[in-house]
Amino acid sequence: GGTFDIKLYNISIANPAGESYTVNGAMPTEFTSKLTIVPNPPVPPVTQEGSASISINDVAALPDGETVSYVEVLLEESEPGAVISAASFKLTLPEGVSVAQVYNEDDEEYVDDITWPAAKKGHSIDVRKNDSSNEYQLTAASYKDFFKSSTNVLCRIGVVVSEEVKSGDYDINVSNISFTIPNLTDPTNPTSIEQEDFTAKLTVALKGDIDGDGILTITDAVRVLEGMASGDSPDNCDLNEDGKVNVTDYVVLLALMA
Fold this sequence. Notes:
It contains two helices and 13 strands; from the N terminus they run E-E-E-E-E-E-E-E-E-E-E-E-E-H-H. It is mainly beta. Strands 4, 6, 8, 9, 11, 12 and 13 form a seven-stranded mixed β-sheet that branches. A four-stranded antiparallel β-sheet has the order 3-5-10-7, with no helix packed on it.
């Protein structure tokens, strides 16, 4: 705080004819004014209150190298749609499983480019793969002040499982989770919230692998026949998904084995 000088100099005032104006018969060349600054006590920053977390439900996938299964990343906030402006996390997938598509809830169609899957509205998802491992870094950022999600879905990630992956349960590891919450008084200094790592389950099931050993053999065909005879068969015996197990499912299995 204190009193300071404001000095104006090299003053020139002219009329439309180009003649200099005078003040009391003389041209003013400079003058000084006073600036008084009264200090205020520092104001502590005010941040947006709230909390956020993400979760992933268990996923089932078919190991054919083509079928896309969707990992849905759910967003939970203390005040839905009015807390976070950005989120980032690392997704570690089992070997043989790769990201094929990423889109958010506002997209009208899937995005195949995993490097820059641009969102059409609301927020974008940036995906970068680690060249030396099966890890993906995902960053979601809002174009507006906060995310606007009516379904609490941050994004959906389409994964494809190669034919080399055997049937069984695998881990999807989610780590390095961080959220950005805007600072209401200082937009350049947002608040960060971190979440503990967690694991979701990926179940890989080969179509027609009734006994779950990861390959198609005569044993699976026998299990289908037994199911037809007894009427009591596993759900994965219904290979054409018509709600019943009959000779059609047996023919489908023989075609898969061939």
